[in-house]
Amino acid sequence: MTSDLEAFWMPFTANRQFKAEPRLLARARGMHYWTPEGRQILDGVAGLWCVNAGHGRREISEAVARQLEVMDYAPPFQMGHPPGFELARALVKIAPADLDHVFFVNSGSEAVDTALKIALAWHRLRGEASRTRLIGRERGYHGVGFGGISVGGIVTNRRMWSATLIPGVDHLRHTHDLSRNAFTRGLPEHGAELADELERLVALHDASTIAAVIVEPVAGSTGVLLPPRGYLERLRAICDRHGILLIFDEVITGFGRTGSAFAAQEFGVLPDLITCAKGLTNGCVPMGAVLVRKRIFDAFMQGPPGAIELFHGYTYSAHPTACAAGLAALSIYEREGLFARAKSMAKLWEDAVHGLRGAPHVIDTRNYGLIAGIELEPVAGSPGARAFGVFQKCFERGLLVRQTGDIIALSPPLIIEPTHIEQIFSTLASVLRAA
What we know:
- By secondary structure, this protein is α/β, with parallel strands linked by helices.
- It has 16 helices and 15 strands.
- The longest helix is centred in the N-terminal third of the chain and has 18 residues, at 108-125.
């Protein structure tokens, strides 16, 4: 193990394996990274689902530098600064109608925990303090705070802390159904009825105990699981029927990934809260946010005007440099029409994704917008080994992909060109043939 790498305990990484054969990135620009040795790597995952406008955007770095020169930090409690209010207005402008208030945090994990706390507090304010139960979904990923891993449904993220998770949480079934939906282009046709699982949980626990349901419109970290046609609409209707809040975790799908600003708009379903992060600053400065519907915000704005309405927040909420990065990123998205560009590239992307059908070990390909999942047949007795091998070989051949279990996930920057799409899938095809 290389001694100069030892001090860094790396997140979600096989540390001993990595440090024996490290994969290092030294600089980035546009669609590419470069290793310390100067080898070019095509970024097929926008960093980690976040660099939507491509790497090295000078507009963002210059905005951050200007802000640091003007004011490096301002306390967010009982004080404010202009960029925070400006960014909130800019976010509301592109958000689904009626989600007109923004609570700033520092990551997707914090956004989820914040949304859960807002949901619980809202019911209490309305005299329904018995609504304390939260409903997540199997294979869902909602960050690594205790709230997020409680409502999350990825067993490896939950196992170590299972005895200390939030009590009373339950989970819907996931929507992945290879037997009926394998090799679907776009949204799967089968599975809307899986939303009715919520009715079963309501019957089991009683609606008066349930505060909120949280789902990813497209589950990303578990391997690109798409919502069946009509599923999200049915989930919304059930929540409305029983007075349950619906939270969309759009940390991955926000900011153009599906071809619209948010997946809620793309799929025509209005949640009560949206969590977002990643693309909010193009990945340049850590930042997240919760978008909140007016009726929820208004319920907190009662009582004496001098009283704090929500005892929650972070030292770095609406950090000035993060706000500067967010404003610059949103300006790039609008000026360059990147959300519409993602939609215009989606058909070419889809055809390339499904061109891998029939490649060795591929048991499913799925896509939406500029997202793709390529599911591989596991090696007997070694789950995840085949996809990890593909991840390694792709990196050796100049392509960065994301591996989760035996699924290769792709989510390139929205500035992707046809030549990049051809390189991504020709590299994948050759690696799969070699495997």
